Amino acid sequence: MLPHHPYRSFLNTLLILFALCGPLYAGETNTEAQVIAERICTIPKFVEWPARRFNQPDGPFVIGVFGTDAVTELLRETIQDRRIKDRPVVVRQCLAKEELPACHLVFISHTENYQLDSILRIVRREGVLSIGESDNFLSHGGIINLINISGNIRFQINLDAAKRERLNISSKLLQLALPQNLDVTGGPASVLGFSH
Amino acid sequence: MRFFRDIPIQRKLRLVVLATCTAALIVACAALFLFQFYSFRMDFERDLEAVASIIASNSTAAMSFGDKDAARETLASLRAKPNITGAAIILKGGTTLAQTGDSKFPENHVVPPLAGLRMVGNDYMFVHPVWFDGERLGTLILHPDYRSQAHELFRVYAGILAGVLGISFLVAALISWRLERVILGPIRYLAEITRRIASRNDYSVRAVKFVDDELGSFTQSFNLMLDQIESRDQALRHEIAERTRAEAELQRVHQQLMEASRQAGMAEVATGVLHNVGNVLNSVNVSATLIAEKLGQSRTENLAKAAALLQGQNGSLAQFLTEDPKGQFLPSYLVEASAHVAKERTDALAEIELLNKNIEHIKDIVQRQQSYARVSGMTEEMQVETLIEDALRMNAGGFERHRVNLLRDYEPLPLVLVDKHKVLQILVNVMRNAKYAMDEVPEGKRVLTVRLRRKDEKTAEVRVIDTGIGIPQENITKIFSHGFTTRKDGHGFGLHSAALAAQQMRGHLSAESEGVGKGATFVLELPFAVRPATHSPTK
Q: Which residues 131-170 of A have a C-beta within 8 angstroms of B?
């Protein structure tokens, strides 16, 4: 799945170049989006939803993507025939906030970072795993925040939020998670034009 | 196997016991050994499996997210397992996520396709595929220190095995040493008994039965056998004594017979001699009578008359002689008378000479008989021809009476070493038989040939060949048996004792005949006298 070694470093170089181009490219590059999509596919494996969220035995696992993002298409590609929680996966591009509570997992693109509060309020106590990519995602009540550290897509986890949503997050994931109060402002992420 | 067969029973027993014990022990120990190794390997693998499972499950997150640090940290926990010297986590694509310890894995090395404890090169690897939520994340490889552990175990077990074998060996040796006496004792005892019997030829010894197994029954049979041997031995001795006695008796009778036959032989010879002498005496008688006759018929009376006539003329002799017719006749009468007398004288002389010869002959015969009678049973060197001639002479009268023609065929031969008396006996006997055998044959056809030849460099052969009635095949050997005779008045031991006599001289008497009516040949073989000087072969 991962590209061949020399090709990868070339892409990395391109990434940096693009990133250095600054605001002209507001948004993730394709490769990063790919990794994010991977992450979004992998993370649910380490999370347990309350039983009420799955009514039918073969009901789909719904991933909702809110906000314009290349991630959606990539998600669909990545998921393909894979299953999450032994269920077929459905990826929805949600246009209205109201669609969100129906999803199991919601990815809030950084483009919607301005209305994080209202979004998160809607999915509150709905048993939805919210994944975002902004500094204050967790403080607004989001559960998992994706963060790019030196080219690696890492994540931060708000355990309280998870508990609130009755979502059980595996300690393995918690181990890999970065601390919640990691100071990313001014760090490499900002160089890459990540935070708003 | 040869070696094993001939070693003493005690050692055999020991070898058998020890070999059996050792073999059994080796088998048992080998089985244990193998089982131990097998279960060691099983345990080892199980242990590795457990460890791998734990590590793998702890690494799923790290592997899912490609988190090298987290993966390394997880592998670091393997330090708790010193027998795992290295480990690596390899992602699905083949890249190594984390590596620890002494593992000599090259980057992006080839993962063996099969899970479990695998041999790669000459080292072991434990391959554990990592799955999470239905997806293969990658592979965890552990590098266990199998070899040294296995060797350790091997050493320990080898030591134990050696120890156990050694001790068991000793125990087995001890027990067998103690028990073998039970078996060996009776065997040795029996061996001793048999040895004693054999060395002393004492069959009265019996073995005591100690045990009731096969040896016991052997002992019983053995004793029975000895009983039989003993009784048979005694019977044999008895019989031998009997036989010896019988033989002595036989010998004695044989001697008697020999004596009797010799006497008979001698009687035959004597008879022969007497016959011959009688014959000669006949001639003597005839001669004497003839002379008496001749001289009786002599004209001496007439001569006396003539002389008286001449005397009676008293001085007129001349006138008588010339004028008297008687007187004129007287000279011619005197001439005639003198011729007659001369002839009578010649005849008488001739007869007297013949007489002398015959008397000489008688003397000869008597002398010969005396010389033979004097010396008997002594071997001396003789010319065979002389003996043959003597025998022929003794039978001469008989040959003449039975009108037998003689043929001599002698080869000059060296002297033989024989008993003169015996040879003569044999030859006389044989010749006499020949003479009688030819009685049925017409007179002109009665021929007795005596052939003297050299049989081989040690033996002379005298063949007495007749043209008589021959000997039927079934009797050829019977004629030499004691008491056999085809003659009405025969006593039957002539040929038998002749054959015996020949044997006694180291010669041989045999008979040949082509059958009835085809004559017979008697062959007497005599040994040459062996001289220390070179024996010139005669032609």
A: 152, 170
Per-residue pLDDT of B475-517, as tens digits, reads 888 888 766 666 655 554 468 878 888 888 889 999 999 988 8
Q: How far is CA B81 from CA B57, B76, B117, B507, in A?
A: 17, 10, 17, 114
Q: Which amino acid is at B237?
A: R
Q: Please say whether the beta carbons of A24 and B116 come within 8 A.
A: no
Interchain CB contact of A8 with B (< 8 Å)? no
Positive/negative CA dihedral, B477, B480, B484, B490: positive
CA-based torsion, A117, A120, A125, A131: positive or negative: negative
Q: Are B519 and B470 in contact (CB under 8 A)?
A: yes
pLDDT in tens for each of the 196 residues of chain A?
555 566 666 666 665 655 554 444 444 556 888 888 888 988 999 999 998 888 888 889 999 998 877 788 888 888 877 888 888 888 888 888 888 889 999 999 888 888 888 888 888 888 999 999 888 888 888 999 998 888 888 899 999 999 999 999 998 898 888 887 766 554 444 444 444 4
For residues B457 and B447, is the Cβ–Cβ distance under 8 A? no
Q: Which of A101, A103, A99 is nearest to A89 (CA)?
A: A103
Give CA–CA dist B283/B304, Å, rounded.
Answer: 33
The amino acid at B162:
A
Strand partners, A61: A89
The rounded radius of gyration (Å) of the Cα atoms in chain B is: 63
ipTM for the predicted complex comes to 0.71
B92 touches chain A (CB under 8 A): yes
CA-nearest residue to A84 within chain B is B133
Indicate yes or no: CB of B61 within 8 angstroms of CB of A2.
no
Q: Residue A2 and residue B95: Cβ atoms within 8 Å?
A: yes
Q: State how far the Cα of A79 lies from the Cα of A90, in Å rounded to an integer.
A: 9
Residue with tokens 């009901």: A59
- Is residue A22 within 8 Å of A16, Cβ to Cβ? no
From the list A196, A55, A71, B471, the residue with the least C-alpha distance to A63 is A71
If you count them, how many residues does chain B have? 539
B65 and B96 in contact (C-beta within 8 Å)? no
Question: φ, ψ for residue B533 (rounded to 5)?
Answer: -75, 165
Q: Output A26 or B89, whichever has higher pLDDT.
A: B89
pLDDT for the residue numbered A131? 92
Distance of CA A166 to the CA centre of its chain: 19
Strands A105-108, A129-132: pairing is parallel
- Provide CB contacts within 8 A for B447, sequence distance 6+: B404, B405, B406, B407, B466, B467
Q: Percent helix, strand, coil in chain A (nearest 5)?
A: 45, 20, 35
Pick from A144, A139, A134: which is nearest to A114 by CA? A134
Contact in structure between B431 and B391 (CB atoms under 8 Å): yes
